[in-house]
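Posting here for the record, re: manganese (II) ion.
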Amino acid sequence: MKLLEYEAKEVFSKYGIPVPKGVLIRAPEEIAAHLPEIGDALVLKAQVDVGGRGKAGGVLFADGATAVETARDLFSRDIRGVPVGSVLVEEKLAIEHEYYVSIAVDRSSRQPVILFADAGGVDIESAALADESAVRRVIVSPLLHDIPPFLMRELLGDAPKELAPAINRLYHVFREKDAMLAEINPLVTTPRGVYAADAKLIIDDNALARQGIAVNRDLSEREREAEKHGFSYVELGGSIGVIGNGAGLTMSTLDLIEFYHGRAANFLDVGGGADQERVMHAVKLVASMPGVNVIVVNLLGGITRCDEVAKGIIAADVPPKVIVRMAGTNEEEGRELLAEHGYRMLGSMDAAIRAAMEVSA
Ligand code: GDP
Ligand code: MN
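Prediction output follows.
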């Protein structure tokens, strides 16, 4: 999850990285009330998730006299197609020099990699492309709590040592926030010291729960139910319900339905070791989708036992026709149970899906 600049700056500031004085506004008129605290030299920055925002007109300068009209101007723009809903109003820094620093995960060494460039700012990408040596790079073991001094020296080269604490704190942010990317571009020197003039922070989506970040999603009743049972579940809008175990098998089921020009209603992966109870909930869930008139259950027995699955399907006892393809552990027991209750169990995926197509047609 990518944080907006003002959110990233709040995090950076908590970790002791100096950020400019600033306030978030959601309407142009709000700016007036904040002028006394922020001062007379201002930067207005659109809070949009767009790269190259400055070049696209998302960063404007103003003074007290022009603040409101500049804010109006910025709110009326859209930045590369994204409307401006909020603006970060900051004191304008007296920048002496702009540097670039970022920390990301290096895939090949599976460790944090820190990049630093003497020439930061809006043209860093083209500068780095033109001259590879413009960007220095070091790998740090994630077991280290701080960037070791010898690596910091290598990173900074001739750049001022006073940048080091901010870079080390950025590394703390990166480690402790489970970040995929922590970037300051530009990291600037001013007569009052070093500041993060911009801030970017991308948190690993797999760490959101651990980080206590609530993801704001509008889940449907059924999606909430699926989440409760730990199913991977996506609604697709067709009429053939799909239940599988394992993402691969479930995807191939969807592919085959598509191949026969059918329309799948959903993707539902019950996961490993599905017992009677889980299968019953899965079948009931898919059956509750409007427009579903047939359900294909495509399961491979292993830890999952076919007789358990059969019991789950029978217990669900739903109106749409359930067509089953199962193979593996206790297959025969499963087949007998299903047959006793009038369900069709077919030997191949192909046969099961063609049977489902006939029902849904
Ligand atoms: P980006 O285009 O989304 O990366 O936006 P930035 O926040 O990095 O701002 C773009 C550029 O605007 C920076 O590289 C600076 O050159 C300039 N800028 C941003 N804030 C300030 C400031 O406080 N003072 C000055 N003088 N320039 C700034
Ligand atoms: Mn920037």
